[in-house]
Amino acid sequence: MAEILQILFDTYFAFTVLYFVGVNLTYMVLLSLSYREIMLYIRRSHFASYRTVVQSEITPPVSVLAPAYNEEATIFESVRSLLKLAYGDYEVIVINDGSKDGTLQRMITEFNLKLSKRVYVESVRAQRVRGIYRSQNAAYANLVVVDKVNGGKADALNAGINAAQHDFVCCIDADSILEDDALQKVMKPFLEDDTVIASGGIVRIANGCEIVNGRVVKVGLSRKLLPLFQVVEYFRAFLSGRMGWQAANGLLIISGAFGMFRRQAVVEVGGYNHATVGEDMELVARMHRYFRERRRAYRIVFVPDPVCWTEAPESLRILSRQRNRWHRGLLDVILMHRVMLFNENYGVAGTAAMPYFLFVELLGPVFEFFGYISLIVLGIMGKVNTEMTILFFIVALFYGVMFSVGAVLLEEISFRRYPNPKHLALLLSMGVIENFGYRQLTMLWRMKAFYDYARGKKGWGAMQRTGFSKPAAG
Amino acid sequence: MSITFLIVLTLTAAATIFVVLASILLVLHKGTVGRRVRRISRLNDMYAASVTEFLAADLPEIPPGSPASRAFRAYDSLLLPLRTGFDAVPRRRREMHFQALTQVVLDFGKDLTGESVDRLVYLSYMFGIVDRLLRRLTHRRWWVRAEAAMDLGTVRARRAIAPLTAAVEDSHPDVRFQAIRALLTLVGVEALRTVFRVGRELTTWNMMELSVDVLHFREDAIPYLIEGLASTDKSIVLFCIEMLAEIGFVNAVDPLSQVALKYPNTSVRAKAIEALGRLGDSRAEGLLVKNLSNAIPQLRLSSLRALARIGTPSAVPALRQRLADGPLDEKIAAARALVRAGEEGLAVLQEFSSSSGLIGAAAGQAMEEAARE
């Protein structure tokens, strides 16, 4: 029995080593691709005159969709800041998803809304719309409010897509802050290439930033550890992850907090899926699948510069719920689109991106968890190869640090949103420290997600936000 | 401990130390960059003051009819302090000073007009700024070439016209586009002829940026835009159509009508039809009404949108048909066109607004939009 166990653990150890090598090779490739793409983007941006997007009559109009649920306290400031974006012709469609508080009433009062006869056609499935409102105030002429029965974020976005009358829809979170030029920058790929069907921007952590009247006026870092770890994580995910995948047209996710789509493409694939909490990734995976199956040319891109600022969870409880939800959403997407796995008919998305998300993002916590379990059992049996174990941990730690630091360096050589050298030093330190406890914690949360998924848990959980809006002084 | 363990441990430790050192160096570098930026900023301020002095200084009296060289000799004398100061800079710092002076020239070049431009151009030639930019226009890296093209337009170096004309056919789209913009600045509206003859593959983004430049020429651009309608490149034709509509020259109705009727590409024809609507000339009405029954949906929709701008009572029967029978986007466009078609159109909308379904919805929305206006 002990011998069998030994063989099993040795085999598992060998597998872990191979897995580790494969994962890190993938990270290195993604990091290299990302570096190349970011440098190309920066060079091209130098010649882009974004002001002309605001001035030109050719600029295509956009519908900005912002689902809102129980946001009475912040909805006025959020919508007001959306109405001041620097873009030519756009409409803001706020979808009140059956809020139980006074979200709708506050908007009706503050924006002088009245019921409208605006055409609403259910091109994609959504819960019943109770009414569509427009403002009587010319200053808010481009505001549309859709009031509907509660159905969740995906359902609210679908209702927004149905109400939109422009060819491009930009899906955002109502409580996120878009930078003034974000729409201009995220639209650019569509205006350079007719095959682009979706484009995502970067989401940055607003905690620690100075925000006045719904605008980030000074970039800063939080004094708390959790948001700092998340800043580094977001750099890894966006700058080195998504930038790398989009270079190979294998981008499988556009953040629900900030994404631009060709409306017709979204309608063709059926809109957002209500049956998953990973609706943002699921839509993009379905778009890949739909266009590949019909052999239609398409591109899904990530633009590293247009910024959406969002509030990151500052408590372990809320953060664990968020990561639990993300992992359940990922599991949903992998299962729903498992036909794409290793299937060359789906290009890079099927042969590389989906397997990556399966083996690295989804199952990575599982392998890591059982690695720790194996170690404990071997220790109890007295069969631990101390040298190899120490070696493995050191190498694993090194690579973890290297990729975190690499992501921070990508930020530093490209956009430099954190101008202070102290900020850079702090982020680099976080890139090291996060490997001692924080990553292990996120691994446990993601393991729990499997258990919750098996139990049939589907909801978002309560996501408390403190809000970060502050009116101007005086 | 085994040798393997020691080797791998050593390599890992070395790599870790390397990463840590690189990180520390980067933090220090950030500080250095900050100091360099401040130093360059001080240099920029210094040269900005000197260049301002040069631009603002009074010229000695030059009799009318004097050759240009007389003015240049006068500029030379005004430039003497700046040149003396620049020549006194130690060699190892000269490159930084040159870059600061170039940046100041480029910043000033964006806004100056009149005789100040001549002075600035003269300064650019005398300090070798133009020469360096011309060399960079043939650099192997595309972003260097593109920046050189952009900057040559900003400094208004007429000697760059021939190289920029060649650059319009560069292999990289960004270089081509910057060369086009620079030529428009240097040569003026006549550059459009060259641009439309050799230019290719303009993206919508390019068109947006170029439209802001071309609109400055207003009616002067019309002959060239009409010429451009005959281009073999679809993007050029689309751009010319858009500009003719934007400038609003009603005599473009005939050439645009020809494009709307005969061009082999549907999207170009649709664009021409919409442009006819934006021109708002009644001569296009017949063509627009005829296209309401076109078999191609894109052309029908464009005609509807065009009629929404013109407002034609004679189109009411056809608009009524599209409101009743067309898909949603045509219903909405037809309803909006009926709003502009006078009393008859409004009567049709009134009649349909009580209908159920999409017809009533489209009619109701159009009437609400009209009331809001």
Descriptive terms for the model:
heterodimer; A: 474 residues; alpha/beta; 15 helices; disordered C terminus; B: 373 residues; mainly alpha; 76% helix
How large is the count of helical segments of chain A?
A: 15
What is the global morphology of chain A? globular
Instruction: State the major sheet of chain B.
Output: none
The succession of helices and strands of chain A, N to C, reads HHEHEHEEEHEEHEEEHEHHEHHHHHH
How many E strands of chain A? 12
Please provide the count of β strands of chain B.
0
Q: Uncertain runs of chain A with pLDDT below 50, 5 residues or more?
A: 469-474
Q: List the total number of helices of chain B.
A: 20
Q: Main sheet of chain A?
A: 10 strands, mixed
Please bin the fraction of helical residues of chain A: 40-55%
Distance between the termini of chain B: 85 Å
Q: How much helicity do the residues of chain B have?
A: over 70%
Strand content of chain A: 15-25%
Mean pLDDT of chain B: 89
* Widest beta sheet: strand line-up of chain A: 3-4-5-2-1-6-11-8-12-7
Write the layout of secondary structure elements.
The complex is a heterodimer of chains A (474) and B (373).
Chain A (H helix, E strand, L loop, with lengths): L1 H44 L5 H5 L6 E7 L6 H8 L7 E8 L5 H9 L1 E3 L13 E7 L7 E6 L4 H11 L4 E5 L4 E2 L3 H11 L3 E10 L4 E3 L2 E4 L6 H23 L10 E5 H7 L9 H15 L5 E12 L5 H21 L10 H16 L1 H18 L4 H29 L6 H13 L4 H17 L20
Parallel strand pairs in A: 1-2, 1-6, 2-5, 8-12
Antiparallel strand pairs in A: 3-4, 4-5, 6-11, 7-12, 8-11, 9-10
Helix pairs in contact in A: 1-7, 1-12, 1-13, 7-13, 7-14, 9-10, 10-11, 10-15, 12-15, 13-14
Chain B lengths: L2 H54 L11 H20 L3 H19 L5 H12 L2 H8 L5 H14 L5 H7 L5 H15 L3 H8 L5 H12 L6 H7 L5 H14 L5 H10 L3 H14 L5 H7 L5 H14 L5 H10 L2 H12 L2 H12 L3 H16 L1
Helix pairs in contact in B: 1-2, 1-3, 3-4, 5-6, 6-8, 7-8, 8-10, 9-11, 10-12, 11-12, 12-14, 13-14, 14-16, 15-16, 16-18, 17-18, 18-19, 18-20, 19-20
Q: Describe it for me?
A:
The complex is a heterodimer of chains A (474) and B (373). By secondary structure, chain A is of the alpha/beta class. In chain A, 52% of the residues lie in helices and 15% in strands. Chain A is globular, with a radius of gyration of 23 Å. Chain B contains 20 helices and no strands. In chain B, α15 (285-291) packs antiparallel against α16. The radius of gyration of chain B is 30 Å and the shape is extended. The termini of chain B are far apart.
